[in-house]
Every structure is written in structure tokens, then in C-alpha cells.
Amino acid sequence: MKTVLTLAVVPLLRGAFKTKLNTLLWYGDFHHFKHYGVSLTGTRYQHLPYGPVPDNYDRYLGILSTEQKLEGEEIIFQDTSGEFFRARAEEDLTSFTKEELGTINHVLKKLGKLNAQQISERSHNEVAYTETRPSETTPYSLAEKLSM
Description:
- The longest helix has 19 residues, at 18-36.
- This protein is 45% helix and 16% strand.
- By secondary structure, the chain is an alpha+beta fold.
């Protein structure tokens, strides 16, 4: 996965909970595939309970944390907790094409203000989620039915 994408998205959001970050990555990849025939990151996504997530997402978050490019913090609420991530370094966006930056900005403009629960619920209504089973890989062929 193009880990640089994670770093491009997180600073623009000033941080995000893991569910929101993973779902934004999914929307970015599927939106880009829908319009350009190729994803941004090249990763596969799985249908998990909070929405679609990149395969091995914990590995990528671990690598970014080890490289001190990303920091995570557990936030405790009354009855639950969540992992909140912030970028520790500014990313060089020159590695992105104009089209890739356009996709990232479009997805953030449309979905960036949603909280983790809202974006999770939205992803659950997408055909790519409703037509796959738990733990199943979400095929990019379903990107054409993306609501955005």
C-alpha cells in the first residue's frame, strides 16, 4: 500500500480515528478506480464490522508509527475506546499526480467532516459493502456503483 497516502490524508484531517482513516482510504481507492481504472494505493480491502478496511492495515499503521511518521493514542469514552491517529511529519505531496490529489481532496471535501460512526454507517450502505460478506475481499469491480 502506498503508505504515503495515509500521511497525506491524516494531516489534512488534523487526525482521525482508525475507523474513519481506513474508510477514507477505501473511499479514495474506490473513487479513483471508478474514474481512472486504477486505485490510489493498490491495496485490497476486506468487509469488516465497522466498514471496509485495507488488508493488513495494522501492519501499515505499525510501520508508520515505527518510522515516527504517525502516532496513535487510545481515547477512552464512557462505554468504549478508539484509536486516534495524527501525522508526526508533513508529507511531500509531489509524489501524487494531479488526478490523485484531486481524488484525495474530493473525498475529504465530501466525507472529511463526518465522524467515525457516520462514515462507517455511510460505507455500510454502499453496494460494495452490502454485496460482500464479512471478511470477504471487496472487488474493485464494485467501484462503479460507488455513491460518490
